[in-house]
């Protein structure tokens, strides 16, 4: 049986000499198979490498997204905690103000028969009488004139003392009794566009105290008042968004932080 061979003849155009190569058909087939296997292997390797890098990039992206989601989750949890705290404060203030309580209806028909005109206000004392009262009070112990009495029995501090807010705001139920913080006399009462109905007290020579946003005052100018006496009732007069008491203390003509004198429940 004759051997099967394949002859390759290479004839260059630039010379007369030719090149001849004869190989067996089996060897040629083997070479072709190896070339095909190499090409297929190279393609598979390229495909696997591409998939590997794709998965690596995807993993990096997922890690970044996970880190971002963790940060967002932490922010959301912080907001939830703040919201819960605000809701607790809101409920506390609602309870203080009695928002959920509806006042009983007023029977205007029955009031007509029982109507009595209000008693006329007492005439204000003269400057001379006020000066005499201050002189007599000056003989008292100085301690009586220091405003250490908290003006409300049940309250929440809603705003503290600052350069732009030279007093403190105390939130309490509408109609709560407002108490004199020290012995003194009523220096002035009135109705202001910002502080509404107010009372200004003089305590000896050094201290004064101011009570704003009252629903009404129970004392008149020149009245002598002892510490703890009811001088008015908490309201929402003047420029307010909710019922509260605006309270100020002045020492020798300078506004001072009431929280440094009173023992307040912050």
Report on this structure:
The protein is an alpha+beta fold. It has 2 domains: 5-82; 127-260, Glucose Permease (Domain IIA), CATH 2.70.70. Helices cover 34% and strands 26% of the residues. It contains 3 helices and 12 strands; from the N terminus they run ββαααββββββββββ. It has helices at residues 25-97, 108-113, 127-137; strands at 5-10, 19-24, 156-159, 168-171, 177-179, 184-192, 196-203, 207-217, 224-225, 230-234, 245-251, 254-256. Strands 3, 4, 5, 6, 7, 8, 9, 10, 11 and 12 form a 10-stranded antiparallel sheet that branches. Strands 1-2 form a two-stranded antiparallel ribbon. The longest helix is centred in the N-terminal third of the chain and has 73 residues, at 25-97. The N and C termini lie far apart (114 Å).
In short:
With 266 residues, the protein is α+β, with helices and mostly antiparallel strands. The chain folds into two domains: 5-82; 127-260, Glucose Permease (Domain IIA), CATH 2.70.70.10.
Descriptive keywords:
2 domains, ten-stranded antiparallel β-sheet, 26% strand, single chain, alpha+beta
Instruction: Pick out the low-confidence regions.
Output: 111-115
Q: Specify the structural class.
A: alpha+beta
Beta-strand percent range: 25-35%
Fold-level CATH name of the largest domain: Glucose Permease (Domain IIA)
Number of helices: 3
Q: Based on DSSP secondary structure assignment, what is the total number of beta strands?
A: 12
User: How many independent structural domains?
Assistant: 2
CATH architecture of the largest domain: Distorted Sandwich
Instruction: Tell me the helix content.
Output: 25-40%
| Mean of pLDDT | 83
CATH superfamily placement of the largest domain: Glucose Permease (Domain IIA)
Order of helical and strand elements: EEHHHEEEEEEEEEE
Distance between the termini: 114 Å
* CATH C-level name of the largest domain: Mainly Beta
Major β-sheet profile: 10 strands, antiparallel
**What would you call the shape?**
rod-shaped
The Cα radius of gyration reads: 46 Å
